[in-house]
Amino acid sequence: MNTRLRGKHLISFEDWTMQEIGTVLRVSHDLKAQFALGRMPELLKGSTLFMIFFEQSTRTRNSLEAAMTQLGGHAHDLTPDKMQITHGESPKDTAKVLSRMGEGIAIRNCFYGVGNRYLEAIGEQAEVPVISMQDDVYHPLQAIADLLTIQEHFCSPSSRSRSLKGLKVAVCWAFATSHAKPVSVPQSQILLFPRYGMNVTVAHPQEFPLQPDVVEKARKNAQASGAELRFVSDMGEAMMRGQADSSIDSPSSRGAGPPTGSGVRAILTALRRSALGALPILSGAGARGGSRMRHGEAS
Q: Which residues pair with 264 in a beta bridge?
């Protein structure tokens, strides 16, 4: 267990070691048990998390704010129009000012070609942890929440993080009439799941592929763990690959252009509520070889 996470940013898990990710999962699992018993410790008493939303959010926003409250801290719900960002304030100024007043900065910015760059710019100047609540490339809170839930359904406590090898996951596109959503959820899933040995099949329309650089990273992660990563344009083929063994179907809506916490405890200690099931992302249960689970993309 690596507890030296002080000051570490969470913009993507690509720069996190397996030991660091394992720490977040174990702490989240333990805090979830304590929450169920009504024994939530005030680990963040007196701490402030600044949450900046460039887009709307239901699950991520409320899960992080609830987590901060339950851990004894406070979350500021901010939007650009409530700050000088609307008047052109630079990422450097925003990062420096908020770093002097609180213990963490969480940001959701999903504007295509802008969001991840903005978070990285804030991270370069911030003196406190910066947490991505989703950008145009990554959604680490959703991915870690998915991973924890998969562990709870498919692993025994004694074999956590080891028994996922060979598990088949189908990440499938779905149509949403509301708005075009970012590809950050499936991209975070294909980067993280293969690191745990899961075989992932991604089904997407040929017109809506994932980002080539992310796919290349995901292939390297799969190769390193001995996992398989496939891409198909046929929903039925993806389902058949998943049905061969135990399977998890993860539908995610896609758009023509990319336009939930729990590690709030381990990192600021940011991923708690999302990994705790505040995001109702997976439903159904079953042992290997049979039942299937489905979840919807967080927002």
A: 269
Is CATH 3.40.50.1370 correct for 161-260+281-294? yes
- CA angle in degrees (0–180, nearest 5) for 108-216-247: 75
pLDDT digits (tens, 9 = 90+) for 144-183: 999 999 988 888 665 544 578 999 898 887 667 776 777 9
* C-alpha to C-alpha distance for 139 and 188, rounded to whole angstroms: 6
Contact 9, 263 (CB under 8 A): no
Please name the residues in contact with 177: beta carbons below 8 A apart, sequence gap of 6 or more: none
Task: Determine how β-strand 247-253 pairs with β-strand 292-294.
Answer: parallel
Q: CA 35, CA 165: separation in Å to the nearest integer?
A: 29
Helix axes 140-154, 18-36, angle to 10 degrees: 70
Rounded to whole angstroms, the Cα distance separating 8 from 268 reads 9
DSSP letter assigned to residue 275: I
